[in-house]
Amino acid sequence: MKLFRFGSSESERPGAILEGGKRIDVSAFGEDFNEGFFLTNGVHRLAEWIGQNHDKCPAVDSAVRLGPCVARPSKIVCIGLNYALHVSEGGAELPKEPVIFLKSPSALSGSSDDVIIPKGSQKTDWEVELAVVVGKRATYVQPEEAMAYVTMITVSGLFNWSAAANG
Hints:
- The chain has 167 residues and is α+β, with helices and mostly antiparallel strands.
- It has 3 helices and 8 strands.
- It is 14% helix and 22% strand.
């Protein structure tokens, strides 16, 4: 199952892509894809609900705007300098330890939304970002246990739920 959020900015609604590619509005489920949804086994609850209600859900046109894939995350934790080729293109060396920084949740945008470049910017760098949605509270997780905390992986506004992940 793939999940997405769609509609006008600040008014996005939750949607799902069924096998075969049909896109449906799952607003009637009653929850958006936010922190509470993920912390309460929302992916599995939604999958069960869709199994019983998919025929009642309105279709979503493929031309509709895709919004940020998660509604109001509490934080965005980023890992910098993690792609070797891009690091070398910039003339830097790979760091020995992860470069960790935070982004404001307001930095999220839809996959086709305009990106606002600061006035006076001399160089704007672009990258494709891979995001991991952590669906359980986590502290001091061992590397071999890390994937048990991953609920979703997303690129460009669509979630791909992994059956291997616990969510």
